[in-house]
Amino acid sequence: MQESQMSLQDLQTNTNSFDPTVTHDDFLDQMLSGLQTTVSWSDVSAGDGEGGQNKSTLPWDVDHFDDQSTMISSKLRQHQITAGNGIRTPSSAVKSLQLPTGESALFPNDNTPIGDNNSIQNLFHGFTGSLTSNQTPQFRNFGSPGAAAAGMNQVQTTSVTAGGGGGAPSQPRQRVRARRGQATDPHSIAERLRRERIAERMKALQELVPNANKTDKASMLDEIIDYVKFLQLQVKVLSMSRLGGATAGTVAPIGAEGGGDCGQGSGGRVGRSSNGTTSSSNNDTMTVTENQVVKLMEEDMGSAMQYLQGKGLCLMPISLATAISTATCHPSGSRNNHPLGGACGGEGGGPSSPNMSVLTVQSANGVSVKDSP
Amino acid sequence: MSPPQQPSSTNPNSLKIRLTHRFLHNLNNLNKKRSNLDNTQIHQRYNRVKLAAYASMAHVVGSRRAWSRAILWKIRNRKVSTRHKRVDHKPTNHHHARSIKRRTTNHSNPKREYVDPNGNSGQEVKLRKLVPGVETMDACGLLDETADYIKCLATQVEVMRNLVDLFSTI
């Protein structure tokens, strides 16, 4: 009898946490998913003050039940503590019911009236049919009566808030757990609208930003940030190229940063290689530059290239340089040849990639490396 | 790098044309105002060109967008401050430019806060720093402004690159 009493109480408790849209399995999973709630049996017993029979049965011993039901009941008890009074009110209505097991007197009386007794009665009608069977299936049967009593939640929550003793007002909201996409709460609807708007903006941004095959929002944001930085960098570089004679100090960090986006980086080098209008036309500076380049090349090719690019110069094979100078008939002040002449001699057997990369940059943009008039 | 086709009122082609016009206009003004051929002032010139680029971007877009409004306001403040400061000779352009920038930014966004009170991810904060004028916007508007800003920046970059090519092959 204690088992069935306990199960009835649990049934009542479960109705509070019951959302009509939740199926049996969802409900069970939720219950059995290891909710860690503290149970205070004394509270429960103190809460039930009315039925004498209840007093004898309360506080129910945990040992009376199976492990599973104990676990479930302990979890549910937490909910019931706050909703306890509210739960018990329907019992007053149910008391008139003739339960097959004769447990109508189980439920304690409570003075707080409940809003909708009829729905609760219907619910308990459904419960009574399941009382005869085993405990575990009784939990399962929540599905049908819960689904039948559509307004149960509202009733319970209102009753709880009206009659709930020590429970926080947020407790009923915790229990009501709608399925995804079916929330009726205005807050969640607004939240969902906001999320959708953000999602469509992100999609629009995806089209703008190249390399937009990322589906993750965080990585997409990273891409966007990098792209904005890259574009601002390009504006900076291009504006420097107009003036000509950008200092090496400002260009060198650009070289390091421009390598971040290799796909668009090739365009960024236009500015530097088209720095034809440098003011230094002194031959001494040329030899100095030449020596510097040679020194740098001995240690590291990359730094030599960077140094040259900072000056607005580049390396190219001698054959090509002579071909260009003879073909286009540029003025003899093609300064690049001097360092190239000395440099390419020893560089002929070196790696061809720097030369090729420089040339592809130039050919792509139609800009020659020589001084522009 | 071709601008993406956007079904908006500012379709990329007309935007490009308008940007080109405006940018050339600004560059002309820039060259007429001063003739800085001195090596030491190259940095200043570069800053002016960059400013002209952003200004042309902002002018073309007008006051429709928060970022363009922010840029226009910054420029206006900067002009006012430079006019006042023109009396005393600037020791170094770098320091002056930096101080001017700081003053204008403080005025333009007095409520600027880099630490988001909501505890948002660092990415949003970074984005707010990059795009001008979006400090106090919500996430939705932020993304909107970013999209427009990216579009304009990309068009501006293309305009500048075409001009560079044009000028360097003359």
Can you give a write-up of this model?
The complex is a heterodimer of chains A (373) and B (170). Chain A has 373 residues and is an all-alpha fold. Chain A is built from 20 helices and no strands. Chain A is 66% helix and 0% strand. In chain B, 69% of the residues lie in helices and 0% in strands. Chain B contains six helices and no strands. In chain B, helix 1 (12-33) packs antiparallel against helix 2, helix 1 packs across helix 6 (139-168) and helix 2 crosses helix 3 (66-85). The chains are: A mainly alpha (373), B mainly alpha (170). At the A-B interface, helix 11 and helix 12 of A face helix 2, helix 5 and helix 6 of B.
Question: What is the largest interface, and how many residues per chain?
Answer: A-B, 45 and 43 residues
Number of strands of chain A: 0
User: Hey, roughly how much beta strand do the residues of chain A contain?
Assistant: under 5%
Helix content of chain B: 55-70%
What structural class do helix, strand and pairing data of chain A support?
mainly alpha
- Helix % of chain A is 55-70%
Major beta sheet summary of chain A: none
How many H/I helical runs of chain B?
Answer: 6
Q: Quick check: average pLDDT of chain A?
A: 57
How do the helices and strands follow one another from N- to C-terminus of chain B? Answer: HHHHHH
The radius of gyration computed from the alpha-carbon positions of chain B, rounded to a whole number of angstroms, is: 18 Å
User: Radius of gyration of chain A over alpha carbons?
Assistant: 40 Å
Order of helix and strand elements from N to C terminus of chain A: HHHHHHHHHHHHHHHHHHHH
Shape of chain B: globular
